[in-house]
Amino acid sequence: MAADSGARGTARPATHHPHPATAGHPTILTGATVVLPTGPVENGQVTVDGTRITRSAPENAHLIDVTGHYVIPGFVDLHNHGGGGASFTSGTVGDILKGIHTHRLHGTTTLVASTVTGDMEFLTRRAGLLSELAEQGEIAGIHFEGPFISPCRKGAHSEALLRDPHPADVRKLIDAARGRARMLTLATELPGGLDSVRLLADHGVIAAIGHTDATYEQTVEAIDAGATVATHLFNAMPPLGHRSPGPIAALLEDDRITVELINDGTHLHPAALQLAFHRAGADRVAFITDAMDAAGFGDGRYWLGPLEVEVADGVARLVEDGTIAGSTLTQDRAFQRAVTVDGLTVEDAVTALCANPARLLGLADTIGSLEPGKYADLLILDSTYELKGVMRRGEWVVPPQLG
Prior knowledge:
This protein has 403 residues and is of the alpha/beta class. The protein has 9 helices and 22 strands.
């Protein structure tokens, strides 16, 4: 991706109306298959009082029968550039809120806003704006993807704006985010890369290896220095080779690494996803969207800085050379595909879309699972895993559709 983006048309306005059956009232969802950290519970129930899941509710609690459905935690997206026609990198505050709401409608109750490559002055200003939204609880923090990435593996980033990851520049972004920087993607083989990984680790920011041309050995060095995430594994990095295994082998084999996967059927062949999932294990996979403006908005022409993008049949590609330019994925589609196409269990899909990213963000005590004391961020799915209800912080973003 690149510094700025815009789309034809105007994003639809965000709206929010608490469900009348639960606005201000404790609620009990009953009869569903409830997916807990210990596994699914048939004919289970979830009790909500205020913004939290509780063990019990007052006698006036409103009962909602969701028999025949699943109740799972809200999705947590570590890597998301926009949606609803809006960019998190270049949109106004109103645009960003529309993009956030678009993804909430699709089940993402916690979202990290990702920026794309731009000049340092622009990115520091952007970090200040996004940090305010994080302070207000609209996003869970900021992910900087670029500008510290390899020109050999730049993807849809503007090559003219790339730079080496000198620690002083990395520190500028951390400081501009005012404690809200969650993750930074960098090509760790570039000059300053390892020192920047150490700097990020020292400041509690996830160092993610991505858009990299590193060798296997260089990747091992970066992991030893403190990197803990692989940015969209397989994409924007050298392929796995039998004599030159490159970063993919190093990232898959090390238990310290969580691998991001874009499960949209375009970025990864199902066999590649299966390889990653089963080699890393369910506890080391985080499904992400890497969504751009067109997510939840539609096909058409979009601009990513100086780079024009054509979105056709839901696939975003640069006009100039056909390079994939992010995705139009939403997490409800990623979940449904994981279970119905990739053959994952519901429990493993929940782990990859909820528990693991919550853990990485340091938020596992409040989100990522349906346990008493945690936020009432939950989803209702029917027997085909279609989304039928979204609750965030105890209020319905999408009221239950149980007919």
